[in-house]
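The pair is listed for reference:
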Amino acid sequence: MNTQLDFDKLAGLLPAVVQNASDGEVLMVGFMNQEALDRTLAGGYVTFFSRTRQKLWTKGESSGNRLRLISASTDCDRDTLLLRVEVEGAGLVCHRGTRSCFTEDLAWSAPQPSAAEETA
């Protein structure tokens, strides 16, 4: 079994989906390089690599809304991480002051089945 993570697909980064361990809510997505992952696993608090600032940052270091790592897993391609966390502080994970970064719905309509699909 391959135990290596594939940091090569995204130029040294892995997307990291952050999920609340207690209720399964997806809170945010960040990116991790090898150093961010190593710090997260060693220290128990989630650290990301900022693509805009080109440096490491530990979530909640200024706001107090830290993400304590409960478990970490990878997908079958070994190029994406799922981090299950416990949120510390006020619980506002998003920089906009909400619990989750996923608060904006996209406008879309479900496609209507064609007549052929309805009779099948």
Remarks:
- The beta strands are 14-20, 26-32, 47-50, 55-58, 67-74, 81-87.
- Residues 40 and 46 are 5 Å apart (CA to CA).
- The chain has a mean pLDDT of 93.
- The two ends are 43 Å apart (CA to CA).
